[in-house]
Design goal:
This protein is mainly α and 313 residues long. It has helices at 22-39, 49-74, 80-106, 119-124, 176-206, 217-251, 255-259, 271-279, and strands spanning 14-15, 134-136, 141-142, 147-150, 155-158, 162-164, 169-171.
């Protein structure tokens, strides 16, 4: 599973020189204007076949788990409160997991505007004498510190951690919180599903599979085995990713920076400051809510579908 997290970065970068060709300047200016105008109206979405398939598989597996838990294990239960409490808890966690997945997938991870490496833009930055800027040769943009280029998103991403096909997006400065919540809630519902499967199996053995499910014993056994395998796999994967993300946040070092063994040129934040910068403000329920900061205006239909790496809805 971890091999699916494809790291994409441009190794080549060059300093911007005063002698840039006029044609390149004009093209960059047009690209920057188009990018800024388009991004204000667009809902971020990456058109990557592998990522979209992985995202579909993720949702399908969550719905399958919900089906098995609800219709195979809880509804046939003789205990009303056992079914209600566990049903509400599991479905609530599933909603939070899918909401976190959507926020991760549809949130701009911190993309640098395309084609902003123009002379006019550099003059507006009021650079100090001797200060050097770097230009990404792929997206023709000024490359900020700790930004890396993703060949899947075709953009430079601020504080890029990695590109995750399971959320069909990069994990970066602006959506890392939602990715952490996604891994946490998937780990929780996986643990809950494993516990329910264990209890259901013991119950069915005690009654010799009579009246323990509305499905036949072979079908019930197959569904429970598949759910156990799925839950164990997802629990292992998301628990590792959750711990890795927290480690990166607390140490102020993204995964791609660690893998490339980049020496920090920035002043590291403290652990507490790193957590606050990612989750925002002081600890509160907003830290664990994928709905915090959601603006309904971003969900409105603004214009027709456009081709390219990302498009409007």
């Amino acid at each position: 599973m971890s091999s699916g997290h494809r790291q994409r970065d441009v190794e080549q970068q060059r300093p911007l020189l005063d002698g840039e060709e006029e044609e390149e300047e004009a093209a960059a200016a047009v690209a920057a204007e188009t990018s800024c105008r388009g991004e204000a109206k667009q809902l971020w979405f990456i058109q990557d076949c592998c990522g979209m398939v992985c995202a579909f598989i993720t949702w399908s597996l969550v719905f399958f788990a919900d089906f098995v838990v609800t219709f195979v294990m809880l509804l046939p239960s003789r205990s009303f409160w056992y079914a209600v409490v566990n049903g509400v808890l599991f479905n609530s966690l599933a909603v939070l997991a899918l909401a976190s997945h959507l926020r991760t997938m549809l949130t701009d991870p911190g993309a640098v505007p395309k084609g902003n490496a123009t002379k006019k833009h550099m003059e507006s930055l009021q650079l100090k004498p001797g200060e050097v800027l770097y230009k990404c040769p792929k997206c023709c943009s000024i490359k900020p510190e700790r930004a890396h280029h993703c060949s899947i998103c075709k953009r430079c991403i601020r504080k890029m951690d990695h590109h995750c096909p399971w959320v069909n997006n990069c994990v970066g400065e602006k959506n890392q919180r939602f990715f952490v919540l996604f891994t946490m809630y998937i780990a929780l519902i996986s643990s809950h599903a494993l516990a329910l499967c264990g209890y259901q199996f013991i119950t069915c053995v005690r009654v010799q599979w009579a009246e323990c499910s509305d499905f036949s014993p072979p079908v019930t056994m197959m569904l429970m085995i598949f759910l156990c395998m799925e839950s164990l796999l997802f629990l292992t994967f998301t628990a590792v990713m959750f711990c890795t993300q927290l480690h990166s946040i607390c140490n102020d070092e993204q995964e791609i920076e660690r893998l490339k063994n980049e020496k920090p040129t920035w002043e590291r934040q403290t652990r507490w400051a790193g957590l606050r910068s990612v989750f925002g403000g002081h600890p509160s329920l907003r830290w664990i809510s994928p709905f915090a900061g959601l603006k309904l205006s971003t969900l409105l239909v603004r214009r027709s579908w456009k081709g390219g790496t990302e498009f409007s809805v």
